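Ticket #97: bound-state structure for zinc ion.
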Amino acid sequence: MDFLTNVFHTLIILVGLGYLARRVYLNLTEASRVAKSTQTLAEYLKKYPQCRTTRGTQCVVCNSMSIKNWGFDGPNDERRVFICNQCNTRLYRSEHW
Ligand SMILES: [Zn+2]
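RESOLUTION: The complex was predicted; output attached.
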């Protein structure tokens, strides 16, 4: 009986570790996918110089000045993604990723 309990506990731990490893893996690959497919602010302004205005940066698609600043993996994540509030286009990301 003790043996079976041990096997059972080991299985639970393995499943838990597998789940965690999968989460970390998915998060890392998703992070690098977003980093690769999203330009930095410097690249964005170089590509669309008209988006640099005296009042700030604007959306290249709809010219909105309202851009939300999102943490990639939650509000405290230093990896920031900037998304237009008006048309939901992902515009640029923070330099440090
Ligand atoms: Zn927009």
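RESOLUTION NOTES: Residues 1-37 form one domain.
TICKET STATUS: resolved
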